[in-house]
Amino acid sequence: MQPTNIGALDGLKVIDAARVLAGPFAGQILGDHGAEIVKIESPEGDECRGFGPPFVNGSSAYFNAVNRNKRSVVLDLGEQNDREQFFKMLETADVLIENFKLSTLRKWQIPDAKWFTQQYPRLIHCRITGFGDDGPYGGLPGYDAAVQAMAGLLSINGDLDGDPVRVGVPVVDLTTGMNAALAALLALQARNRTGRGQLADISLYDSAVSMAHPFLTNYLHSGVIPGPTGNRHANIVPYNVYKTRTVPLFIAVANDRMFSKLCNHLNLQELPNDPLFSTNRARVENRDLLEAKLNKAFESVDGEVFGPTLLDNGIPAAPILNIETVANSAHARHRNMVIQTQEYTGPGIPIKLSDTPASIRHFPPRLGEKE
C-alpha cells in the first residue's frame, strides 16, 4: 500500500481546552496524526505563550513546540455566553482535553467531571489534573517539578550520595501528555464497540509514580529505600559513564554476553570467568570492585575511537552530546526529528506510520487564529 496524505486520525474532532504543557502536548500528538484540533484559549492566551525567550511570531518557542496542527479559538469561559458556545462545540466533538480546576467546574454549576460524558454520551473526556480530584492530595495544583518531588523522582535523581536533583526535562508533564493521548485512543477503540464515550482520569502524580522504575518495585520487594544513583543503574552493571583519554562514554551492558565482549575489548578477559563478575547478579553485588577495574581500563583508551568500535560490535556505548550537537546531527536530520523551514522550526514527529504518516499541516496558531 502506498502512503496517503490522510493521517490515521483524519476525521477526529478534538477540543483542546488545556493549558501549559501536558494537555497541549496530548492534543498535538493527536493533531500530528490527522485529528482536527481546536485550541480553546482565554483572551489572555495560554500562559506558556510567554515562556521565553526565545520568541517566534509573538509566542515562545516553548509554546510553538507543543501547539502545531491546531486552530485557536478565544473564549472567556467565565462568561455565560462563551461557555455556552464551548458546550455547543462539544456536541460534535469526539475528544475533550482539559485541565480545569474542580472549583472552576463547580463555579460553572458542573458538580464533577462525570458531567461531561453524561451530557455528551459519545464524548471521550481526557481530564488532566495534578493529583486527581479526590484522595489525600485531591484537587491540589500540579506542577512538574513539585510532582517529581512528591512522587519520589527527585529522591532517586542526582549524583551518587549527593543531593536530589530535578530531572531537567519536564518528564512528568510530557509523560502525562502521552498517557492522555493513549487514553483517548483506548477510549475511542472502546467506543467503536459500545457507542459510548467515557472519562479518562489522567494525573501528573499517577504518571510520575508509574515512572519510578525500577526503584519503586525494588523497594516493594526489598524494603530498602533507594537514593540517588548518579549515572549508575540500580539493577544492571556495568551501566555508567566512564572517562577515557578523550571523551567520556556511557556504557550500558545488559547481559553476560555483552560483558564478555566488553572485557575482550578492554583486555580484561579474565573478568567474565571470575565468580565475582560472571553474572549480572554477581556484578551488582560486587559493583564497587568491578567499577574500579573498569575505570582503570577505560582511562587508557581513546573514547572517540573506542565508542564506535564497541557499537559496531553490538555493545551499547554512547558519547555524551550536547543539544547543539544533537540538533545538527546527521541522524536527527535523517529521522526528521529536527525541522527547520521558513514556516516552522521545532522538534519532529517521533511516531512514524508507513501507510498513514503524520504531518505538519498547521503551524502553531497566533492567539485567536482560526484559519
UniProtKB/TrEMBL annotation:
The keyword Lyase does not apply. One of its GO terms (molecular function) is CoA-transferase activity. It comes from the Bacteria. Transmembrane segments: none annotated. Gene3D superfamilies: Crotonobetainyl-coa:carnitine coa-transferase, domain 1 (3.40.50.10540), formyl-coa transferase, domain 3 (3.30.1540.10). The keyword Transferase applies. Keywords: Transferase. InterPro entries: CoA-transferase_III_domain, CoA-Trfase_fam_III, CoA-Trfase_III_dom3_sf, CoA-Trfase_III_dom_1_sf. This is Crotonobetainyl-CoA:carnitine CoA-transferase CaiB-like acyl-CoA transferase. It comes from Advenella incenata.
